Amino acid sequence: MTELDQSHGVGRDRLLIDSLRGDLTAASFTVPAVESLLGPLASAALGREQSLAALRATDRPGDLATLVRLFVLGAKVARDELDHALPRLGTSGAERLGLVTSAGRESGDAVRADVDLRPYQVLDASGEVTWWLASDQGELATGEALQADHVLGVGAASVTLAQVTIREPRERALDLGTGCAIQALHASRHCRSVVATDTSRRALSFAAFNAALAHVDLDLRAGSMLAPVRGQTFDLVVSNPPFVITPGAVHDAGLPRFEYRQTETAGDDVVRDLVLRVGTVLAPGGVAQLLGNWEFWRGEDWQDRIGSWVDACGLDAWVIQREVLDPAEYAETWLRDGGLTPDRDPARFQAAYAAWLDDFERRRVEGIGFGIITLRRPMREDAPLLRRLEEHTGSLHQPLGAHLAHGLAMHDWLAAHDDAALAAAHLTVAADVTEERYLEPGSADPRVIVLRQGDGLGRGIQADTALAGFVGGCDGELSVGQIIGALAALLEVPAEELAGDVLPSARGLVRDGFLLV
Fold first, then answer.
1. How confident is the model at residue 442 (pLDDT cuts 50, 70, 90)?
2. How far apart are CA 147 and CA 443, in angstroms?
3. Which among 97, 96, 84, 165 is positioned nearest to 125, based on CA atoms?
4. Amino acid 237: pLDDT
5. 215 and 233 assigned to the same domain
6. What is the model's pTM?
7. Using an 8 Å Cβ cutoff, are 218 and 188 in contact?
8. Rounded to 5 degrees, what are φ and ψ at 14?
9. What are the pLDDT digits (tens) for 461-471?
10. C-alpha distances in angstroms, 36 versus 68, 71, 119, 405?
């Protein structure tokens, strides 16, 4: 692990961190235990950024209650209570690590947390994982607006990226803008080595602490985006970059410039530049997966702008737009995230809100999309490139990483198999596919047939009788051509004509995982 300036953020004393790990394990400081302690009412309220019910639920003796009150809720606790909850580390050890400080003379022997430290548990494509993660405290714990160098913990976007990342065994991985290192930790489970970069020394301090607490070795490097790894290549690149589109005039109006969510670049250029440049560090077959925002302008579809990026990057590209906000919604969302609200500071809120809307109007921005971008360097330079831009605002069946990996593999398979080769293939229906039939009352024939995917993106494909019959016949026994021939005889249509209708649909069903090769 690269040596870093320890004056920023938390400490990295290995012996103290080992003691902390033992104490957290002994106290059962886990997601299920915390949820059980809080109960459904307090847990739900905490999810809405309301801590009172959780404070009431933890106002009782017990090591777990002490840890939750201190590190999750930001409440003061007595030194002897923390000594009991962390018997190996002790309050003095927690102070040396920068986790707690004295709450002040007026609070007697009480201490307060200087960090947010909580259990983390999630399912990714490699299976279930549990860690403890430290980051800066949020407004709920401090009662104050965030600082410019605030280091985020794990949010919804972090979990989304972790779940959509392809978890195949890899040699080298790169986490760009690592923050508290959550993506780097996930990558460490299936990659031999992981490099993590960030411009924030404070973020790298938390990353080093979290890696040590998880018994993981990371190569941490300070610098902006790809600069610290220039000339190197990786098999996997992941990034939850600082993609929030914030005009300079908004900062002039009073919104702080937060390191975790934006750079000096204008508009959505940080995402565009990453799409255009990430190929320079991808090894053949290497995959880059990132989250981002993109603008779409008056008179243009969302696919126009991001489509121009993926056309120019020279990589396989699969973009899934998950959400669209209008300019007003976007400004309101990120003003609240930055702690600027009409209740707290109405004048500054209105000024920043107006500046945001003015900028979007001047640049003819009609909407801002958010989504998942998957890029891949083909193994061969002459390989046909994948270009998929689609919108899916419904629920995802997480973890999605395996589905995306299968989609990339099927792109390669289809590129290598013409219609004659496809006709000779023996296909089977994926286990998650079901068929829905909708009939008018009294009718013997269905009016609508839908093939429904239970996994992945949960797609629904409307099929006619011939396509539904074809899919029903895909049990691996007969080839595609043999099934089409039998259907043609049954439907009394020329086999060549039916093949012309079915084969393109079969390609789509293979591509999307309805049919397996």
1. confident
2. 66
3. 165
4. 98
5. yes
6. 0.93
7. yes
8. -65, -40
9. 999 999 999 99
10. 12, 17, 13, 36
